[in-house]
Write a structure and sequence with these properties.
Chain B: This is Mitotic spindle assembly checkpoint protein MAD2B. The complex is a heterotrimer of chains A (472), B (203) and C (470). Chain B is an alpha+beta fold. Chain B is 39% helix and 28% strand. In chain B, helix 1 runs antiparallel to helix 2, helix 1 runs parallel beside helix 4 and helix 2 packs across helix 5. Chain B is globular. Classes of the chains: A alpha+beta (472), B alpha+beta (203), C alpha/beta (470). Strand 3 of chain A pairs parallel with strand 19 of chain C.
């Protein structure tokens, strides 16, 4: 696996974390921070403790262990027990077990722990930052895990995903800021840099860092950061926009690719997720017109870097340059505005996409026709929700309210998409069901038109929607 | 609910959590009187003794008033030797200016919450950096503020039957104290620093 | 195997020795999962119907099965409807049990309370020695006396009773013997040649006082292969599925106060349901990157209250819902894993039977529901339930291999053997918040084993307790 110098550096880093930074180092934290296999992390912690103990003298580190084995419950029944215990309790717990199946270091820290709270907090923070890949370095691989892809899935989850991304990347942006304190950020970056060096990839890091407007420059001051971030945002927007325009042409095809990818090869989960996020963002801010070249520039290095999981510096920087722009405030208002303008655009876009799909999905032609015909009609929520009820949790209702005061092609388009999805993902669904749905969809417009006349809840809904956007 | 008062709420709440955390980690009360509560999405320890709780609540309430009325520079939890009331350790929260435009920067308080979590994590492992906790100690809370600020809330405090007095000189002075930085946080709306001081005598 | 009564680990301490680094690339064991929950999906939400249809439907469906059982047991004894009863004739009656209970909460009594009549004591159980059993069919009802035990019977069970209505004691049916339905046949248990586990866990109760975040994290870490020595990891890789059987959120998250109060103001209160759901999402988000997870809602989870509870909405779990490995299902839930049928609930039916009977053993109640052929007999009487018209989805029409109830006070399991060779593993899944315990079931052998998670930090002994500074 890792070469000797790497190991030595890792040991140095661990020492630094524990002795200088007074950090709690759990095996999971170490594995995620250094992007190393969890078992390598466990071993590294063991070696560290071993060396520290061998040095003799002032032994100022405390160790907690993970112990598992067969024990007895209170009633005397056999049960498998797993426990995290401090070193002082280790023997007691081990003796209480009939067979010990596991025993390894869980964490090392300077403080004598009174309870699990610091351990939990340490892991909580690192998991939160790496929620999409928290098991990438675990020993068990689950090859079939993938993100649900497909147009309707990503579309329906759009609002949510964006929100989540926002919160996550806020975490990121923030972590840079806090590190400026006496939390010795410099040492950390140094440590990381040191770690990277022997692999000869440091140059590439700098290259990418400079390309990314200092995205990799972790210890930069907050002021600079805002600056950099907004620049990054601009680049990102560029990418998003061009991608959007490109998408106009061949998006259905692209989407197909993703679907195929899901089945055929084991795709990196996070990169796929990332892709879906990008797709969302593309839809979010397709307003600014920029050159296509920027897009290629943006996406290619991203993917490359995804593969290189050895250095967490890259990971963090790349999360950053994808999303770091968002929490910055000055841009936000513009974005809000945009989102509304986007609605019109989006509809046009959807319309085009519908036509694309029409070509592809011959058996749905009747439905798409109805979509094209059904223009300039408003619809009520009621009809829609009834339609979706038997499907599994689509968020379409929410989304549709967005388009409410517009033409309802979007609606039909999304219906169409939904059909598509059910074709692809839910093979067990029989054609009979689909057929009834088609007729339903055809029948809908009339009902909707009627509904529109005698009710106007849309107005009030609309305002609440605005506030929804503003909240972000 | 204005931004400013929300900021004050957040800060005073954090001060409360910090006090409990210090009491727990320095072993001022037996572990049995503490209970785990969830704060900032992570478990924290909270003292259940009604007397202690009431005291802390009063302290925090008055800190809240002080914060909303004016400038508070430092809030420190001072651990004193029981008989001589000489300070042994103190945990100091140093506050920079609290700006009011924070809702725009961090509307869902994600950053703030994460920062406060960071403080608590650091605080809970600070034990290792200090001398072993000594027995027979007591504690108190000092707030460093200005006369004008105090006088502004003095009346209210007296009404609440929880007046603050000027700290004794000897409670404030620490001989050969050693400073142990814990964590600092700088953001657009909040600058905060947490450190511990301990006197040499404690060894 | 590590997860058995006789584990034989070899590589313990493998990370504490200078042994050569072996990092086996462990693969999660594969399994095929099917869900047969269509019957539990409520399609048209119309609540202006009476519940009579449900009882009628239940009686209709079950009558066939009971007739078969009764004929087999008592031969050619005539089967009568209640209006056809002839005095002193020995006959079989098939009907629904109704338990007349004095203590059963009653809105009329509550109203009378307001008119300062006797107040009813608040109690958690409503069974009483004065309770009487009544049998109903489509038209009539009759009191039953005799062999049918009141303590172990609950309203809604379909039963066949053998006996007579004596001339000198009219209006009462004297029961000699009784029987329940015949358990439906079971598809033969597929032969699984390797150890393969399903983990059942319930009652995380996030957002409550009892929540155990660290233990949950340990569970996630163990299942995902972050914890344990090599052998343990290898064994863990054969956990093919995790079933989260209800009450992932605590009862206290249903507190309406937290909705109206802003987060930063809810001083000293536990986090509301928003935080709890977010935490649940985070937890599931870790699990689903490594293993298939089925989550069914429980009594306190944010979905509809009445059975069948509909799946969690994906918007509530934005992170974990993105993965193909998260399966949000109904409660009750009918899963088929590698050909093994698993049926179970988040425990409300058992809890309700506990309230309205004098049985103590949860596992026995669970067993009874299987014997009765109905997952939730007390619905819709005392257990909230959707007013079905055309069918009663809670009837056990296929005998499962594993039958579980979540959110129970303690872990228990046993193998139930049916009359025609059915073998069902009955399982009460304990509340994680109470016990820190999950259950592993080996699909190969249908053996169950609890697995518990602890952290064990000694309390520092304080000989002198300092005085309160006041």
């Amino acid at each position: 696996m890792a070469c000797e110098t790497d190991k030595a550096l890792l040991q140095e880093n661990i020492e630094e974390y524990i002795k200088d930074d007074n950090k709690v180092v759990t095996c999971k934290w170490l594995s995620l921070m250094h992007s190393i296999d969890i078992n390598v992390a466990k071993r590294a912690l063991h070696i560290f403790v071993h060396h520290q103990r061998n040095k003799g003298g002032n032994d100022d580190i405390n160790v907690t262990f993970f112990v598992a084995g067969l024990g007895k419950s209170k009633d005397g029944d056999l049960m498998h027990k797993c426990a995290v215990v401090p070193e002082t309790e280790l023997e007691v717990v081990k003796r209480s077990l009939a067979t010990v199946t596991s025993c390894h270091i869980f964490s090392v820290q300077k403080a004598k722990l009174k309870d699990y709270t610091p351990l939990y907090m340490t892991d909580y923070e690192v998991i939160k930052d790496n929620i999409d890949k928290c098991n990438r370095f675990s020993s068990i691989k689950c090859p079939w895990v993938s993100l649900k892809s497909g147009l309707s899935a990503s579309k329906s989850a759009q609002q949510d995903v964006v929100k989540v991304v926002l919160s996550e990347n806020k975490g990121h942006a923030f972590s840079n800021k806090t590190e400026t304190g006496n939390d010795s950020p410099g040492s950390k970056t140094r440590a990381l840099a040191k770690k990277v060096e022997p692999k000869g990839s440091i140059t590439s890091m700098f290259a990418s860092a400079s390309k990314k407007d200092g995205g990799g420059n972790e210890s930069s001051k907050p002021v600079q950061k805002t600056d950099a971030a907004s620049k990054i945002k601009a680049t990102k927007k560029k990418g998003g926009v061009t991608a959007f325009f490109e998408k106009k042409g061949d998006s259905p095809l692209k989407q197909k690719d993703v679907l195929l990818g899901k089945d055929s090869k084991k795709m990196d989960a996070s990169s796929e997720r990332f892709e879906s996020n990008v797709t969302n963002e593309k839809k979010q801010d397709p307003k600014r017109k920029k050159k296509q070249a920027a897009d290629a520039d943006e996406e290619a290095p991203d993917k490359k870097r995804r593969r290189r999981i050895k250095t967490d510096l890259f990971d963090s920087s790349d999360d950053e340059d994808v999303e770091a722009g968002e929490p910055e405030e000055p841009e936000e208002e513009i974005e809000e505005m945009e989102q509304f303008e986007v609605l019109d655009k989006g509809i046009e876009e959807e319309h085009k996409m519908t036509e694309e799909e029409q070509k592809e999905e011959v058996d749905d032609s009747s439905l798409t026709k109805s979509a094209v015909v059904g223009k300039k009609r408003k619809r009520t929520k009621k009809v829609v929700s009834k339609h979706y009820e038997d499907e599994e949790g689509f968020m379409v209702t929410k989304k549709e309210t967005v388009w409410e005061s517009e033409t309802d092609e979007e609606d039909e388009a999304s219906v169409n998409k939904q059909e598509k999805k059910s074709h692809q993902s839910n093979t067990s669904e029989d054609m009979g069901k689909l057929a009834t749905k088609n007729t339903k969809a055809k029948a809908d417009p009339k009902g909707k038109a009627a509904a529109k006349k005698n009710s106007s809840p849309q107005k009030s809904k609309q305002t609440s929607l605005m506030s929804f956007f503003k909240k972000k | 609910m204005t931004e400013a008062s929300m900021g004050v709420d957040i800060l005073s709440e954090f001060v409360e959590v910090c006090i409990h955390c210090v009491l727990y980690s320095r072993g001022l009360y037996p572990q049995g009187v503490f209970e785990k509560r969830i704060k900032y999405n992570v478990p924290v320890q909270m003292c259940l003794h009604p007397g202690v709780c009431a005291y802390i609540t009063n302290v925090v309430d008055s800190i809240k008033m002080l914060l909303s009325e004016g400038q508070v520079d430092k809030i420190s939890v001072v651990i004193l030797e029981e008989n001589s009331t000489t300070p042994l350790e103190r945990f100091v929260i140093e506050l920079g200016s609290v700006k009011s435009n924070w809702t725009e920067k961090d509307p869902h308080l994600f950053q703030t919450e994460q920062a406060l979590r960071g403080f608590l994590l650091k605080l809970s492992v600070t034990d290792a950096l200090l001398h072993p906790a000594s027995k027979d100690v007591t504690w108190t809370v000092h707030v460093h503020t200005q006369d004008s600020t105090l006088s502004a809330v003095d009346e209210q405090l007296v009404q609440k039957d929880f007046p603050w007095v000027e700290a004794e000189e000897k409670q404030q002075q620490m001989k050969n104290s050693r400073l142990v930085p814990i964590k600092s946080y700088n953001s657009d709306w909040l600058n905060m620093q947490l450190y511990a001081e301990e006197s040499d005598k404690n060894s | 195997m590590i997860y058995s009564a006789n584990p034989q680990p070899v590589n313990v301490h493998s990370f504490s020795t200078e042994a050569p680094e072996v990092n086996p690339d462990l693969k999660r064991v594969t399994s095929t999962v099917e869900y047969k929950n269509d019957r539990f999906i409520v399609k048209d939400r119309s609540f202006n119907r009476q519940f009579a249809h449900l009882y009628a439907e239940r009686l209709m469906t079950m009558r066939k099965r009971l007739t078969a059982a009764a004929t087999e047991k008592w031969g050619n004894t005539p089967i009568r409807k209640l209006h056809e009863l002839i005095n002193d004739e020995r006959c079989i009656v098939i009907g629904t049990i109704f338990k007349h209970m004095e203590l059963r909460p009653n809105i009329l009594k509550e109203v009378s309370e307001e008119h300062n009549l006797m107040p009813q004591p608040i109690r958690s159980r409503y069974a009483d020695t004065k309770d009487k059993l009544i049998i109903e069919d489509e038209l009539q009802r009759i009191f039953v006396v005799g062999d049918l035990k009141c303590e172990t019977s609950v309203t809604g069970v379909i039963v066949a009773v053998l006996g007579k209505e004596p001339e000198d004691d009219k209006g009462k049916f004297h029961v000699e013997d009784y029987c329940y339905q015949q358990l439906p046949t079971q598809v033969p248990r597929p032969i699984i040649d390797q150890d393969k586990f399903i983990m059942f866990v319930s009652g995380f109760e996030l957002g409550g006082r009892e929540e155990r975040p660290f233990q949950m994290q340990m569970l996630a870490d163990l299942v995902c292969g972050q914890l344990g020595d090599l052998d343990q990891q290898e064994a863990t890789a054969s956990i093919c599925h995790v079933v989260v059987a209800g009450n992932s959120l605590s009862e206290s998250t249903q507190d309406r106060d937290t909705l109206t109060k802003a987060k930063y103001l809810s001083k000293k209160t536990s986090a509301g349901s928003v935080e709890a759901v977010k935490n649940l999402d985070g937890f599931l988000g870790q699990l689903v990157t490594s293993v298939d997870v089925t989550i069914l809602p429980g009594e306190f989870d944010p979905t509809n209250f009445s059975l069948p509870q509909q799946p969690f909405h994906q918007c509530m779990l934005p992170v974990s819902s993105q993965y193909n490995t998260l399966h949000r299902q109904t409660n009750p839930c009918d899963i088929t894993v590698d050909g093994l049928r698993i049926l179970g609930t988040a425990g409300q039916p058992v809890e309700d039977i506990y309230r309205y009977s004098e049985m103590e053993d949860r596992l026995a109640m669970l067993e009874n529901t299987l014997v009765w052929g109905h997952t939730a007999p007390t619905a819709p009487d005392t257990l909230a339930c959707y007013p079905f018209v055309k069918e009663d989805p809670f009837i056990v029409s296929n005998c499962p291999h594993i039958y579980f109830a979540g959110c129970q006070p303690e872990y228990k399991s046993k193998v139930f053997k049916g009359a025609s060779g059915q073998e069902v593993l009955l399982l009460t899944v304990p509340r994680f918040s109470q016990s820190g315990t999950a259950v592993l079931v080996n699909l190969r052998s249908l053996e169950a084993q609890p697995i518990s998670f602890h952290s064990h930090f000694p309390i520092v002994d304080e000989s002198v307790s300092p005085e309160v500074d006041k």
